Amino acid sequence: MRLDRLRRLGGPNVYLSRPVAIARLELEGLTGHETTDHPGFAERLVRALPGLADHHCSAGRPGGLLDAMARGTYFGHVTEHVTLELSGLIGRDVHFGRTVRAGGPGSYDVVLECPRDEPPDSPVVAGLLALAVRLVGGVLAGRAPDLAEGLARVAAEHERGRLGVSTAALARAARRRGVPVRRVGDLNLLQLGYGRHRRTVWAAMTDATSAIGMEIAADKRLAHRLLAQAGLPVPDGETVATSAAAVEALRSVGPPVVVKPLAGHQGEGVHIELTTVPEVVAAFAAASAGGGEVLVESYVPGRDYRVLVVGGRVSAAAEVTAAHVTGDGAATVAELVERVNADPARGEGHDRPLTRIALGAAELANLARRGHGPGTVPAAGETVWLRRNANLSTGGTSRDVTAEVHPEAADLCVRAAATVGMDVCGIDLRLPDIASPPPSDPGAAGILEVNAAPGLRMHLAPYEGEGRDVAGDVLDLMYPPGTPSRVPVVSVTGTNGKTTTVRMIARMLEACGLRTGLTSTDGVHIGGRLVHRSDASGPRSAEMVLGDRSVDAAVLETARGGIVRRGLGYDRADVAVVTNITADHLGVDGTETLDDLAGIKALVAEEIVRGGGLVLNAEDPASAALAGRDAVRDREPVIRYFATRPDAPAVVRHLAEGGTAYVAEDGWLTEASAGLRVRVLSVAEVAGAFGGHARHVVANALAALAAARALGVPVDAAAGALRAFEPHTRNPGRGCAYLVGANPVLVDYAHNPAAVTAMGAFVERRWGRGGVAAVTLPGDRCDSLVGETARAVARSFGRVVVYEDEDLRGRRPGEMTRLISEGLREARPGVRHRPAGDLKAAVTSALDLAARASRSCCCTSGSSR
Q1: 514-548 pLDDT, tens per residue?
Q2: Of 355, 538, 736, 743, which one is least surrounded by beta carbons within 10 A?
Q3: Under a CB-based contact definition with an 8 Å cutoff, are residues 796 and 760 in contact?
Q4: Neighbours of 786 (CB within 10 A)
Q5: Do 527 and 545 meet the contact criterion of CB atoms below 8 Å apart?
Q6: pLDDT at residue 863 tops 60
């Protein structure tokens, strides 16, 4: 087998509402082989990877995979399950997999769920797949390879790329509250919410955290000064830059003292309860090793506590105990440390609830002071302290004491956070007992530090006691109950009319005073201004709009290509619009049939908020049929049909059932419901509809009206926007007419059979005769679709100029001209057609043909640009 290529779908996709990776697997010599063709394979594979015995597969119960291998299954399917099992072994919590045929014999796409916040460029899934291919191949050859070393490398990469404990908890808390979450690259930085409600959080630091407060918290000397001025208990201390000054501070402050770096963090370089000059000199040397100043302060006896203050109240409190081991009378200190570190809750740095204990210089020095070393065997029950300062980052543990905090102790911590000016902070303090009022005697209690961006792990999963939803408290601070995290989102898909429809919807929202973000095939617009020119109908453009904090509403053109190649760029639109589903893009990205295309575009209808709006074309069977899909019905949508005629069967049924529809009735765009008709705008006044002759524009206007009304746009605002929707400025490249001499020239994006037919019918209705077509078609469509579109051109136009686009999209020069010309002649043997080198030459040639004719005529361009 061979892994050919790998791609990721980062948003909701046709396989799963969560991210997936799709690996193209070429079976090569195993093409057509099943597991039953290789006796003993399944047994050997399960011996190598016992967890496979519990895989459900399609049976929905443990052992399902074993049954499938016993019946006979292909090796792409086996590789999928091996990859999922290896994922579980490294702590990568994913469960979904699917293997589907991918064209030619032996080609399969293995679809694998990815963790939501795994970096998009993470090499982990590729590494797991490579190991899976290696294992399956080895077992087939009769020798199961040892994957331990390779799996350890992939596991380390997974650990490096995963969110930290605090950030991961914040992401989970946000999703529980329905707040959109997007990780920025491989950082512990999250973007929450959409548009003007977007917020940013980096671990426990929010975008509202005071920069001044953080500077104060980082400067221990300044923080102590401000706390003391506020009447809060802090240790006496002095800042020193030399060992002599440190010794002098020992004398002036009085032993015992604490020596620590002025700018230190995570408990590093902290030396406590020092009483002698040699101890202070040695501690100063260690604490100043980085070249900074050192703080010498009085030692406050008591227990170590960390209190988390969020938004002016105590969210959680923990008693912190320094790193230690307990003897059993047989194991050495080093062996006891190894046992403690075997706890899966312990990891490197902050990637687990607890940190592994190290036997570094500080730990060895502390052991030596107590008459121990790594090889010492402590007595049974003896506690051996490896650190004197209590900190999770140096291997300490925590015990939840939130319910024990005395109101006066809580008030002390809240006042400290307010004094420094922090919205979220951790207060380190020493007290005899946090359950009692803090003693008023000098030196009997003290606030040791105020920590900006405090770690949450000791509160989320304390070593002892109940975990606290502190991440939820941070989210409630950022999004108080009742505060929105989203802006209205409209997603528009379909074969034709998407761009015109999104532009119309955006114009209606802007008429209501909403600063609207718009994505379409010609770029990203914010507030009516083009900010990024590109084919912006995919997920990256959606993310650009939804990440803009000036946006009040978003209207997103959502094309097939973006869905297939990257998934959606949003989760849960408020309104989804499906303009129609007709033949286009067949033969591209594995889309072979109209049903395939409908399945892709159905995702837009499925990914709406519960009870959201769904706008469907009642005159298009494939679009109207989406209402009956189980995944659509599960969202309990409010369906609004649109149609250019009021007697469309789907409209008649919908109205009889009490629904709402938007139709062209008696010359008016009409909002229809059971027994009620609201006239919105006369068809003749719809800008760009040429007095109603351009029925496809009327259909687009109805779809846009339905979406806007679903968002609460008033009727008069919608009517005014449609009346002012002038094509040349609001809808360039779609149905724009120009007069060149005596010839009207119509420019449109029509490039598939349905669109070309609609344009031909419009030309006939508007000008009463056929015209001259200057046409090209996209080269990435299959030959049969190109031919079908060319035949549609011939049925509508008797004179055609054929040119080739600048982007051949994989075609050979002249190939598209030949295919189009063949299709023209097939449908209309007497058609007059001529080739042209490019668009400019084609338009010139078309105008020449029109000028020679006895009547005026039209020129329509199907350029893919």
Answers
A1: 999 999 988 999 999 999 998 889 999 999 999 99
A2: 736
A3: yes
A4: 24
A5: no
A6: no
pLDDT of residue 756: 78
Ranges assigned E (strand) in 87-178: 97-101, 107-113
Measured at the alpha carbon of residue 307, what is the angle toward residues 305 and 310, in degrees to the nearest 5? 170
Give burial (CB, 10 Å; 0-12/13-18/19+) of 271: buried
* 111 CB burial (10 A radius; 0-12, 13-18, 19+): buried
Whether pLDDT at 860 is above 60: no
CB atoms within 10 A of CB 659: 17
Question: Cα dihedral sign for 680, 681, 686, 690?
Answer: positive
Instruction: Give the pLDDT confidence of 101-127 residue by residue, as tens digits.
Output: 987 889 999 999 999 999 999 999 999
Could you give the CA distance from residue 432 to residue 182 in angstroms, rounded to a whole number? 43
Q: What is the DSSP letter of 300?
A: P
In this structure, are strands 573-578 and 489-493 parallel, antiparallel, or unpaired?
A: parallel
Q: What's the CA gap between 394 and 455, in Å, rounded?
A: 13
Phi-psi region of 611 (alpha: psi -120 to 50; beta: other; left: phi over 0): left
Instruction: Please answer whether residues 556 and 538 qualify as being in contact, where contact means their C-beta atoms are separated by less than 8 angstroms.
Output: no
Residues 6+ apart with CB under 8 A from 141: none
What the block records as the tokens of 599 is: 């399945």
Tokens describing residue 403 = 């319910």
Q: And the tokens for 19?
A: 């991210």
d(CA 725, CA 704): 12
Quote the tokens at residue 79.
């590789």
Cβ-contact 472, 172 below 8 angstroms: no
Query: Can you tell me whether residue 298 is helix, strand or coil?
Result: strand
Q: Tell how far CA 318 is from the center of its chain.
A: 33
Cβ atoms of 66 and 46 within 8 Å: the answer is yes
Instruction: Give the single-character DSSP code of 212.
Output: H
The position carrying tokens 């379409």 is 520
Give 593's pLDDT tier (boundaries 50, 70, 90): confident
Q: How far apart are CA 745 and CA 726, in angstroms?
A: 17
Percentage of residues in the chain having pLDDT higher than 70: 94
If we measure between CA atoms, which residue out of 396, 393, 431 comes closest to residue 412? 431
ω into 62 cis (within 30 of 0): no
In 397-545, where do the E strands start and end?
A: 397-400, 424-431, 446-452, 489-493, 516-520, 523-526, 529-532
Sheet with strand 20-26: strands edge to edge: 2-9, 20-26, 107-113, 97-101
Amino acid making up residue 478: M
- Give the Cα separation of 698 and 299 in Å (integer): 80
Residue-wise pLDDT for 692-741, tens only, equals 888 989 999 999 999 999 999 999 999 999 999 877 677 676 766 666 66
Rounded-to-integer distance, Cα 206 and Cα 60, Å? 42
pLDDT of residue 854: 41
Taking CA atoms, 432 is separated from 391, 411, 444, in Å, by: 18, 17, 8
Three-class secondary structure of residue 375 per DSSP? coil
Number of residues written out for the chain:
865
- Answer whether 74's CB lies under 8 Å from 108's CB: yes
Q: Is 447 helix (H, G, I), strand (E, B) or coil?
A: strand
User: CA torsion sign, 113 to 116 to 122 to 128?
Assistant: negative
Burial of 596 (0-12, 13-18, 19+ CB in 10 A): middle
DSSP secondary structure string for all residues of 703-722: HHHHHHHHTT--HHHHHHHH
Which residue in the block uniquely carries the two structure tokens 């914010």? Answer: 526
What is d(CA 794, CA 756) in angstroms, rounded to the nearest whole number? 10
> What's this model's pTM, rounded to 2 decimal places?
0.86
**pLDDT, mean of residues 803-831:** 85
